[in-house]
Every structure is written in structure tokens, then in C-alpha cells.
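Trying the structure run again after the queue cleared.
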Amino acid sequence: MCLGIPMQIKSIEGFNARCEAKGVERDVSLFMMQDDQLEVDDFIVVHVGYAIQKISPQEAQSAWEIYDEMLAGEQS
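Done. C-alpha cells:
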């Protein structure tokens, strides 16, 4: 199964961004979205280290709620 992880952009340098989700920071390539206008504080979906889609803060929150439910189900 493949998952896209919602993350928030914290800084941008060229085609690379430092992104954060749930207190975890990662470097993410923006190369596949080079034609999109991305800014600090935007939310993106990250798959295998690449930003693949810009999303709204509400969409990111909804995705994390679903992921949290899935993880809670695993721990039961």
C-alpha cells in the first residue's frame, strides 16, 4: 500500500523544502511540482520524499484524522 503523507512546508531552498508533520521534520523534493507556486506554510502531500500535490489545511487535517484512526485500530 502506498500512502501520501500531508506535511507543512517550513522552509524552501531551490527545489528542496524542509517539511513538518506531527513534530517530525523531513527534507522533501519539490522537483515534481516545480511549475506550482509553493510557499512556506503551504500543505503538500509527500510520497517517497517527493511533493506530489498541494492541499488545503483542512484536507491535511482530515487525512491525519483518518491516519490516526487507522493507527489506533492497529493498537487494539
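The radius of gyration is 13 Å. Worth checking whether this holds up in the mutant runs.
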